[in-house]
Amino acid sequence: MQALAERIRVWAGELGFTGVGIADPDLRQDEYWLLRWLRRGWQGTMGWMGRHGVKRSRPQRLLPGTGRIISVRLDYQPAGAEPWSVLADGRKAYVARYALGRDYHKLMRQRLQKLARRIETEVGPYGYRAFVDSAPVLEKAVGREADLGWIGKHTLLMDRDASSWFFLGELFTDLPLPADPPRRRGHCGRCRACIDVCPTGAIVGPYQLDARLCISYLTIEHDGPIPEPLRPLMGNRVFGCDDCQLICPWNKFARPTAEGDFQPRHNLDHADLVELFGWTESQFLDRMAGSAIRRLGHERWLRNLAVALGNGPASAEAVAALEARQEHPSALVREHVAWALRRLTEPGNAE
């Protein structure tokens, strides 16, 4: 099994994974924090977080017979992107770095399946199942137990060589592989940069995230109106938020990804808000094919863009773009458009 574990690391590297570890599935230390998070209601409208109960912290309930979890990492930070300059330009749309290119779910799952089949050619039939955000898995805790890093104060898994700019995937297996002891200690120290920079104060304390305040939750997972008090704090962030990662001192050590699929598409790394807001639904669906953004749907895409336009400069182009959507069939879009227009047409806002 030790020799097999070493070969698994080699095969994972050949498939492009930038990190691999083997975890014991005992996550009892994380169950208390999971249940406390749910009791506080910090999951917001993400009802599925509670429906699965303790399956997240007890992997054997998710897949009976699971003895080990192979955790893999794939870096995604694109080269050449200038996030701070985009965030400072109210005419531009900020899209989380992970969503600039193609959707990672399918790519990682296919590679995990290849890894699983490669193992099968070595040992014969065995029990396994691959997951990439497709089941109730505490993937950051699994990654920590597989010695892929430590969980930072922003609640993301951290690695000294990649900061937190990576995706995680898991291969649950019944093979009695030797587990990697989690030797890596946290290296956040007294730093609280991620806590202080959060635009909405969603990181309510070290290692504590209230998703209801998080811009990533508001722009991606939340399907209703965005609470008005939070809208001005969102700036031009239209899909996700990276501020806590961008500010992290460990970020300077992160290496750009070599994955072509993760490079920006359709100029999403510096696109104009007015241009994106003008996309028809068919244009949105066509241009976002193969992107994580597509699952958002055109309605919520317009909702997010309307908020960003309302937070930007009151140019004639922005006002005209919003006015063109005033009679949109969606009440959700109309309400956010009306809010944005009020913001831009108040005395003193016009350019």
TrEMBL record:
<feature type="binding site">
    <location>
        <position position="244"/>
    </location>
    <ligand>
        <name>[4Fe-4S] cluster 2</name>
    </ligand>
</feature>
<comment type="similarity">
    <text>Belongs to the QueG family.</text>
</comment>
<feature type="active site" description="Proton donor">
    <location>
        <position position="133"/>
    </location>
</feature>
<dbReference type="Pfam" id="PF08331">
    <property type="entry name" value="QueG_DUF1730"/>
</dbReference>
<keyword id="KW-0170">Cobalt</keyword>
<comment type="pathway">
    <text>tRNA modification; tRNA-queuosine biosynthesis.</text>
</comment>
<keyword id="KW-0846">Cobalamin</keyword>
<feature type="binding site">
    <location>
        <position position="191"/>
    </location>
    <ligand>
        <name>[4Fe-4S] cluster 1</name>
    </ligand>
</feature>
<comment type="subunit">
    <text>Monomer.</text>
</comment>
<protein>
    <recommendedName>
        <fullName>Epoxyqueuosine reductase</fullName>
        <ecNumber>1.17.99.6</ecNumber>
    </recommendedName>
</protein>
<feature type="binding site">
    <location>
        <position position="216"/>
    </location>
    <ligand>
        <name>cob(II)alamin</name>
    </ligand>
</feature>
<keyword id="KW-0411">Iron-sulfur</keyword>
<feature type="binding site">
    <location>
        <position position="198"/>
    </location>
    <ligand>
        <name>[4Fe-4S] cluster 2</name>
    </ligand>
</feature>
<dbReference type="InterPro" id="IPR004453">
    <property type="entry name" value="QueG"/>
</dbReference>
<keyword id="KW-0819">tRNA processing</keyword>
<feature type="binding site">
    <location>
        <position position="214"/>
    </location>
    <ligand>
        <name>[4Fe-4S] cluster 2</name>
    </ligand>
</feature>
<feature type="binding site">
    <location>
        <position position="188"/>
    </location>
    <ligand>
        <name>[4Fe-4S] cluster 1</name>
    </ligand>
</feature>
<keyword id="KW-0408">Iron</keyword>
<dbReference type="GO" id="GO:0031419">
    <property type="term" value="F:cobalamin binding"/>
</dbReference>
<keyword id="KW-0479">Metal-binding</keyword>
<dbReference type="InterPro" id="IPR013542">
    <property type="entry name" value="QueG_DUF1730"/>
</dbReference>
<feature type="binding site">
    <location>
        <position position="168"/>
    </location>
    <ligand>
        <name>cob(II)alamin</name>
    </ligand>
</feature>
<feature type="binding site">
    <location>
        <position position="157"/>
    </location>
    <ligand>
        <name>cob(II)alamin</name>
    </ligand>
</feature>
<keyword id="KW-0004">4Fe-4S</keyword>
<feature type="binding site">
    <location>
        <position position="241"/>
    </location>
    <ligand>
        <name>[4Fe-4S] cluster 2</name>
    </ligand>
</feature>
<feature type="binding site">
    <location>
        <position position="248"/>
    </location>
    <ligand>
        <name>[4Fe-4S] cluster 1</name>
    </ligand>
</feature>
<dbReference type="Pfam" id="PF13484">
    <property type="entry name" value="Fer4_16"/>
</dbReference>
<feature type="domain" description="4Fe-4S ferredoxin-type">
    <location>
        <begin position="179"/>
        <end position="208"/>
    </location>
</feature>
<comment type="function">
    <text>Catalyzes the conversion of epoxyqueuosine (oQ) to queuosine (Q), which is a hypermodified base found in the wobble positions of tRNA(Asp), tRNA(Asn), tRNA(His) and tRNA(Tyr).</text>
</comment>
<dbReference type="GO" id="GO:0052693">
    <property type="term" value="F:epoxyqueuosine reductase activity"/>
</dbReference>
<dbReference type="GO" id="GO:0046872">
    <property type="term" value="F:metal ion binding"/>
</dbReference>
<keyword id="KW-0560">Oxidoreductase</keyword>
<feature type="binding site">
    <location>
        <position position="194"/>
    </location>
    <ligand>
        <name>[4Fe-4S] cluster 1</name>
    </ligand>
</feature>
<feature type="binding site">
    <location>
        <position position="133"/>
    </location>
    <ligand>
        <name>cob(II)alamin</name>
    </ligand>
</feature>
<feature type="binding site">
    <location>
        <position position="56"/>
    </location>
    <ligand>
        <name>cob(II)alamin</name>
    </ligand>
</feature>
<dbReference type="InterPro" id="IPR017896">
    <property type="entry name" value="4Fe4S_Fe-S-bd"/>
</dbReference>
<keyword id="KW-0963">Cytoplasm</keyword>
<dbReference type="GO" id="GO:0008616">
    <property type="term" value="P:tRNA queuosine(34) biosynthetic process"/>
</dbReference>
<feature type="binding site">
    <location>
        <begin position="241"/>
        <end position="242"/>
    </location>
    <ligand>
        <name>cob(II)alamin</name>
    </ligand>
</feature>
<keyword id="KW-0671">Queuosine biosynthesis</keyword>
<dbReference type="InterPro" id="IPR017900">
    <property type="entry name" value="4Fe4S_Fe_S_CS"/>
</dbReference>
<dbReference type="GO" id="GO:0005737">
    <property type="term" value="C:cytoplasm"/>
</dbReference>
